[in-house]
């Protein structure tokens, strides 16, 4: 009897706890359901993983596509541009020779640990018969380009806004060069890229000399890190004007001199940052509010616009003009461009010099593109193969592929047309200049 009461009691307890567990389970599942419906859990467990899978798949497809495009370019490289092995050999030679033996004298000693990076300074072929214009040559990469070209015998024109600084530099270089060869053939001309009128005036004065121009290096650029949005007196966002519009106007207005100097080259010091750039031809000044302006948006957009414009220019210039158009990446270089970075980041720059180029190392891709004898043939091959973009030379002097967006031909042509409109040139400016006809620019007087 007692046993029976115990079992009934146990049974009652068991049922009670089962009911409690069920209620708890129900509450839990209801909570889960609420979370699910409230989409938090749904987002964490379903939406996000699905998004990750979709994005990864898209990236993979893009990567494969770019690799395919890259392979296509690579096929053309070995025969036309020095292979890495050859470059390495060259670099070893450059490092083994003493300053007086080398065609270009090292302006600074190469730190031992950096020899692993190779070929610094880049050994240049004889260039005594070249006339080169280098914009923004009072500091950083441009300064090194101008100095090394001049020390290798070229006639160099420093196109700068601070002419006094340029004259001071020439004075210093000449005195350091004394006894090493003929005096450097180098001069200064004023150019302020924040004024399209100044660009037009510069081109007018240069073209009036009726001399040849062999190399135009559009190096000057700005990256006003964390700075507010600013506009030039021409009404354009400053990054867009200095990094893209003004160099574009300069390149086109100097075409008559570049044709006289043919085979000649236009080299744009660009950046890998164009990979994250976006250009909206309806909103070149980034004022519509569709995108929030930051200096990064301004800088990357201007660099992408330059690659796109250069690609169309490269395609529009007929082979007979003998003008090659290239973009180059200098790498991450410690220059004044970092002056606006927070102090702590600048200190970091000093702590990790091994991974960051100095200005001389950063000048190699532009110097290589300006002087390597195989560059014109390589550019021509890209053109005859209907390659959609111009040559893009990487920081280690190898042909590389610009961003996927740079391959967007429709946008590139939109950028081309919009740019011509903004710099005040007619849409048939190239064709007219090639034919030797006059072209009027809104920002200046009559051009040749
Ligand atoms: N440093 C890097 O890590 C890096 C990376 C990728 C690409 N780049 C590109 O490399 C190029 C050279 O930059 P950098 O690093 O050598 O910088 P930098 O030391 O600041 O030199 C920039 C040069 O451009 C000139 N400049 C600026 N605004 C000008 C204007 N309105 N008119 C005429 N000249 C002007 C400057 O002249 P002032 O001295 O008068 O200001 C200076 O000579 C730029 O196009 C930059 O975007 C640099």
CATH architecture: 3-Layer(aba) Sandwich
CATH-assigned fold name: Rossmann fold
Distance between the termini: 122 Å
Morphology call:
elongated
Bound molecules: NADP nicotinamide-adenine-dinucleotide phosphate
Beta strand %: 5-15%
**Helix segment count?**
15
Low-confidence stretches: 73-117
Rounded mean pLDDT score: 83
- What is the chain-wise order of helices and strands? HHHEHEHEHEHHEHEHHHHEEHH
Number of strands: 8
The CATH C-level class name: Alpha Beta
By oligomeric state, this entry counts as: single chain
Question: How many structural domains in the coordinates?
Answer: 1
Strand order of the largest sheet: 3-2-1-4-5-6-7-8
- The fourth-level CATH homologous superfamily is NAD(P)-binding Rossmann-like Domain
Helix-strand category: alpha/beta
The major beta sheet can be summarized as: 8 strands, mixed
Q: What percent of residues adopt helix (DSSP H or I)?
A: 40-55%
